[in-house]
Amino acid sequence: MAPAYEPLLAGETSSNNNDSNIIITQDEVPINKSRVTVVGSGNWGSVAAKLIASNTLKLANFHDEVRMWVYEEVLPSGDKLSEENVKYLPGIKLGNNVVAVPDLEHAVRDANMLVFVTPHQFMEGICKRISGKIREDVEAISLIKGMEVKREGPCMISSLITEHLGVNCCVLMGANIANEIAVEKFSEATVGYKENREIAEKWVRLFNTPYFMVSAVQDVAGVELCGTLKNVVALAAGFVDGLEMGNNTKAAIMRIGLREMKAFSKLLFSSVKDSTFFESCGVADLITTCLGGRNRKCAEAFARNGGKRSFDELEAEMLQGQKLQGVSTAKEVYEVLSHRGWLELFPLFATVHEICIGSLPPTSIVEYSQS
Ligand SMILES: NC(=O)c1ccc[n+]([C@@H]2O[C@H](COP(=O)([O-])OP(=O)(O)OC[C@H]3O[C@@H](n4cnc5c(N)ncnc54)[C@H](O)[C@@H]3O)[C@@H](O)[C@H]2O)c1
């Protein structure tokens, strides 16, 4: 990662001037080079920047430089996060062409490809800050798991981005525990898109590497809901681990969870395809999250403590600044279920939330299935 980006001074030319984005190749064919900015620099944000930066160096139609917006934090040592990501991805080189930018507006203003990858609770504020300050030809992709529940119903993060910024937004989800991809262990991911296959293929080229195989499906809602809802099932799997209920029980919970993920997604969006649940974003992400993710880990500790230590406390103690998504997603899903009268249709989702808020003990995770 290169040192923090110096903002352009008044009078300097920015690449907002479209001419500066066009280069002439040897055979005289002009290429409109894309500029990529990653909005977010946590664990997954940093790894996403690493993947992208390795590809922009190789692909002719992308500028080499990848800007990464860093929510600035000053560490106890006095070091700044924008100088080295020692907090969220220690020991991994992101590439010299990744430039850390602590100023959000400067980070996004020249880019025509924006990659959003922050914990979901910060996204509405980020969208408000950059609205009207981005290029008109921006394409976006969200790697964010979670949803916002509003009075008029649930709003997926890709829709939030589209509504606030007026841009098309794809999603990328998959069985992707960031620390494993950081050390280049093989995995897969799924891009979900609405209509424009060409844009989806451009995102695939930007992320795909020999150790990170990306494919695209025309089902943005299905891909995003898979990525979001599996965190609720991971909490259930963690409760089972904490109660030492064994592998059969955990497999049963994962199967029931997958069934609820599919039913909930299809009730919300009739366009969601069954086949999406067999992509990396579906069953593969569910398996990896229930075996290894942070939601499972904190839920295991919660159950071991008999629900006496709150998730906030466990998150602060166990995750060193990383954010748990599953607990807030379980609450958001519960709000949708109760608002629509669907609670009885989704006993696992409902029970997970009730355990998280302490109205049921962790042992209830297997009791609902008798009804
Ligand atoms: N880590 C993974 O393995 C992984 C894998 C796939 C998807 N995801 C998803 O990616 C998204 C981002 O997760 P992550 O792992 O990169 O983040 P993280 O949980 O590791 O880090 C939290 C980030 O939020 C920033 N932050 C803290 N306060 C903030 C504020 N007020 N405003 C804006 N930013 C603030 C921190 O500086 C840090 O960059 C989440 O939706 C997550 O579910 C994560």
TrEMBL record:
Top EC class for this record: oxidoreductase
Record's keyword annotation contains Coiled coil: no
Gene Ontology biological process terms, A to Z: carbohydrate metabolic process; glycerol-3-phosphate catabolic process
Residue intervals of the Glycerol-3-phosphate dehydrogenase NAD-dependent C-terminal domain: 219-367
Entry-linked Pfam families: NAD_Gly3P_dh_C, NAD_Gly3P_dh_N
Keyword terms of this UniProt record: NAD, Oxidoreductase
EC number: 1.1.1.8
Cellular component aspect of the GO annotation: cytosol
Residues bound to substrate: K145, R294, N295
Catalytic activity: sn-glycerol 3-phosphate + NAD(+) = dihydroxyacetone phosphate + NADH + H(+)
Ranges for domain Glycerol-3-phosphate dehydrogenase NAD-dependent N-terminal: 36-196
One MF annotation (Gene Ontology) recorded for this entry: NAD binding
InterPro entries, per the entry: 6-PGluconate_DH-like_C_sf (IPR008927), 6PGD_dom2 (IPR013328), G3P_DH_NAD-dep (IPR006168), G3P_DH_NAD-dep_C (IPR006109), G3P_DH_NAD-dep_euk (IPR017751), G3P_DH_NAD-dep_N (IPR011128), NAD(P)-bd_dom_sf (IPR036291)
List of residues binding NAD(+): G40, S41, G42, N43, W44, G45, F122, A178, R294, K323, Q325
Residues annotated as the enzyme's active site: K230
Stated family: Belongs to the NAD-dependent glycerol-3-phosphate dehydrogenase family.
Protein name: Glycerol-3-phosphate dehydrogenase [NAD(+)]
Organism this protein belongs to: Camellia sinensis var. sinensis
